[in-house]
Specification:
There is one protein chain. This protein is of the alpha+beta class and 239 residues long. Helix content is 45%, strand content 26%. It has helices at residues 3-35, 45-56, 61-72, 103-116, 144-153, 177-187, 211-225, and strands at residues 80-87, 93-100, 120-122, 131-140, 158-164, 167-172, 193-202, 206-207, 230-235, 237-238. Helix 1 runs antiparallel to helix 2 (45-56), helix 1 (3-35) packs parallel to helix 3 and helix 4 (103-116) runs antiparallel to helix 7. The radius of gyration is 19 Å and the shape is globular.
Length: 239
C-alpha cells in the first residue's frame, strides 16, 4: 500500500469534503426556499425548482428532506445573501457568494482570508462587471441543432451552446435555468448533469505562471473553502 494508499485516502477525504460543502450549500438554499412559502414543492414553485436543481447535482434525498423538515419545524434561522469581490496577483479576480446568519462574522472571515493570502478585498462592483451571470448545464450529448430546437420551442433564452468531446454545455439566462433543465430531462430521460447551476463566468481568464503567485492564490481558495458561510466561489484563474 504505502504511498498509493495515502494518495487514495487523500483523494477520498477531498471528495468527502467537497460533498459536505455541496450538501451544506443546498441545505441552506432549500431551507430558504421552503421558508419563503409553503414548505411543500407541490405548492411552492421556488422550492420545487430548487429540489430539482439539488437532485441534478446529486444531493441525497435525506439532505433535501432534512432541510424541508427544518423549515416545517418552525426554525427561526434567517440567512442574508452577501457578495464579496476581490483581486489577487496578476489580474486574478474573484467573487464570493455567501449565505449567513451573522454578517459581522462573515465580514471578519472574508477580511481574514484576504489578508492571510495577501490579496485585496474590493468594493461592490469592482470585479463583477467583468463577469456574465448565466445558467449553466453540462451533460453528455452532442446534437447541438436538436438541442437548440428543443430549447427554443420551450421558450428558453439560450445564450450559447458548446460541444466538446461528447459533452454539451448550455448557457441560458439565469431565470431560465430550471426551464432548460426540465426541457432537457424531458428530451433525455435519465440524463445526469455534471453542472446545473447559475454561475458567474469571467470575460477573460488569466494564468498564474509565478510559483509564488500560485501559492498565494491557492492559499486564498483554501481559506475561503474553510468558511462555512461561503456558498459559491467564482474566479478567472485557469491552469
Amino acid at each position: 500500500m504505502g504511498r498509493a494508499h495515502e494518495v487514495r485516502a487523500a483523494a477520498m477525504a477531498k471528495t468527502a469534503a467537497m460533498k459536505s460543502k455541496l450538501y451544506s450549500r443546498y441545505g441552506k438554499e432549500l431551507y430558504i426556499a421552503a421558508k419563503s412559502g409553503v414548505p411543500d414543492p407541490d405548492m411552492n414553485l421556488t422550492l420545487k425548482r430548487k429540489i430539482a436543481e439539488a437532485k441534478a447535482n446529486q444531493v441525497p434525498a435525506d439532505v433535501i428532506k432534512r432541510a424541508i423538515e427544518k423549515a416545517k419545524g418552525g426554525s427561526n434561522e434567517n440567512y442574508d445573501s452577501l457578495r464579496y469581490e476581490g483581486i489577487g496577483p496578476k489580474g486574478a479576480t474573484i467573487i464570493i457568494d455567501c449565505l449567513t446568519d451573522n454578517s459581522n462574522r462573515t465580514v471578519a472571515a472574508m477580511n481574514s482570508c484576504f489578508n492571510k493570502a495577501h490579496c485585496k478585498l474590493g468594493v461592490k462592483g469592482s470585479v463583477s462587471f467583468n463577469y456574465d451571470n448565466l445558467g449553466v448545464l453540462s451533460f453528455d450529448y452532442d446534437d447541438e441543432d436538436k438541442m437548440l430546437e428543443e430549447l427554443i420551442t420551450a421558450d428558453v433564452n439560450v445564450s450559447d451552446i458548446e460541444v466538446e468531446d461528447g459533452t454539451m454545455t448550455v448557457y441560458t439566462d439565469p431565470s431560465d435555468l430550471h426551464k432548460a433543465q426540465e426541457t432537457i430531462e424531458a428530451m433525455l430521460p435519465n440524463i445526469e448533469f455534471s453542472v446545473c447551476a447559475i454561475k458567474m463566468l469571467p470575460h477573460e481568464y488569466v494564468t498564474l505562471d509565478d510559483p509564488q503567485d500560485k501559492e498565494m492564490w491557492n492559499r486564498l481558495l483554501t481559506l475561503l473553502d474553510e468558511v462555512d458561510d461561503v456558498q459559491e466561489v467564482f474566479h478567472n484563474v485557469t491552469e
